[in-house]
């Protein structure tokens, strides 16, 4: 199983259907789990998907419309029941009263300590503690205050075994070279990290839900390996999308194309469309985006693409 993958728990928008649960997406990232917008029924969908609350370290809400947050009470209470003692939660600060209602919706034996990260302003940088990634939120254009999220892994270095061997660097000295940037070789020479490694670009992921097209959408998506984005409507219903603060499949494709995205995941579909319309979402996005397009289905898993290759040295 991939260490970096998206587990799709639900793909419907405001109203669930027979085939699509309310919105819900779990990003698994090297042992960390970020649960985005758990709608109603998310707890049960997690059981079907073979994941549990121990896989969730963060709950990230884009906004407080019900299809994006009504699953919070079940998730939080399940955390306490299953012995999860710590988690983080990010949400728009303007909806803090809704968070409190969801967080304490019923009586239960509450043992989980949730570190809260209320979001305010056009851009918010979240404190991820010791996690090996940064998490940024940007305000979107929706009838209620909403944010999109961007996860960024720092650049690293891929060591070159032949270059290390040629300079006699081995064993613990390799770790010191990576940590300090230089090390003294057995022959007394100073060996630098640049001589024995090449830059490894960090991977990036963005999660963009309910919004009209706006600059922050493109900023969140820019250069991402995986873009998970709403495509509530088909292009012929662009007027409805605009009126209700949503995107079409073609608009999602445009965002991916202009951002140089590697893999585009379309989700959050209006209940007005039928199963046979699925191919039309893919086609409208692909008409403007030449990369990989995935039309998400409930309980599917979407791996984060492999790292992009760097030019030869």
Automatic annotation (TrEMBL):
Coiled-coil regions, chain positions: none
UniProt catalytic activity: Endonucleolytic cleavage of RNA, removing extra 3' nucleotides from tRNA precursor, generating 3' termini of tRNAs. A 3'-hydroxy group is left at the tRNA terminus and a 5'-phosphoryl group is left at the trailer molecule
Keyword Nuclease belongs to the record: yes
InterPro entries registered for this protein in UniProt: Metallo-B-lactamas, RibonucZ/Hydroxyglut_hydro, RNase_Z/BN
Presence of the UniProt keyword rRNA-binding in the record: no
Active site: 67
Chain sites annotated for binding Zn(2+) 2: 67-68, 210, 268
Amino acids binding Zn(2+) 1: 63, 65, 142, 210
Keywords of the record: Endonuclease, Hydrolase, Metal-binding, Nuclease, tRNA processing, Zinc
Cofactor binding, note field: Binds 2 Zn(2+) ions.
Function (record text): Zinc phosphodiesterase, which displays some tRNA 3'-processing endonuclease activity. Probably involved in tRNA maturation, by removing a 3'-trailer from precursor tRNA.
Name under which the protein is recorded: Ribonuclease Z
Source taxonomy: Bacteria, Bacillati, Actinomycetota, Actinomycetes, Streptosporangiales
Gene name per UniProt: rnz
């Amino acid at each position: 199983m991939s260490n970096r993958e998206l587990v799709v728990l639900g793909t419907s928008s405001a109203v669930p259907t027979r085939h699509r649960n309310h919105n819900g997406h779990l990003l698994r990232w090297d042992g960390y789990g970020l649960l985005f917008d758990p709608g109603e029924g998310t707890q049960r969908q997690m059981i079907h998907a073979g994941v549990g609350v121990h896989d969730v370290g963060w709950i990230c809400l884009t906004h407080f419309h019900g299809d994006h947050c009504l699953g919070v009470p079940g998730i939080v209470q399940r955390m306490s029941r299953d012995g999860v003692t710590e988690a983080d939660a990010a949400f728009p600060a303007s909806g803090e009263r809704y968070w409190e209602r969801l967080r304490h919706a019923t009586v239960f034996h509450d043992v989980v300590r949730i570190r809260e990260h209320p979001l305010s302003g056009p851009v918010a940088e979240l404190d991820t503690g010791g996690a090996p990634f940064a998490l940024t939120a940007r305000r979107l254009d929706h009838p209620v205050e909403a944010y999109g999220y961007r996860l960024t892994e720092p650049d690293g270095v891929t060591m070159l075994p032949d270059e290390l061997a040629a300079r006699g660097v081995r064993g613990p000295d390799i770790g010191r070279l990576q940590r300090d940037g230089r090390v003294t070789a057995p022959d007394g020479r100073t060996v630098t990290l640049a001589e024995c490694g090449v830059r490894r670009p960090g991977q990036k992921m963005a999660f963009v839900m309910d919004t009209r097209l706006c600059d922050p959408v493109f900023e969140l998506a820019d250069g991402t390996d995986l873009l998970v984005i709403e495509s509530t409507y088909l292009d012929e219903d662009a007027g409805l999308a605009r009126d209700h603060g949503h995107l079409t499949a073609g608009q999602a494709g445009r965002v991916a194309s202009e951002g140089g995205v590697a893999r585009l995941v379309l989700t959050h579909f209006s209940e007005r469309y039928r199963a046979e319309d699925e191919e039309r979402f893919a086609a409208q996005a692909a008409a403007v985006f030449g990369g990989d397009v995935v039309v998400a289905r409930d309980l599917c898993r979407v791996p984060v693409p492999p790292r992009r290759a760097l030019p030869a040295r």
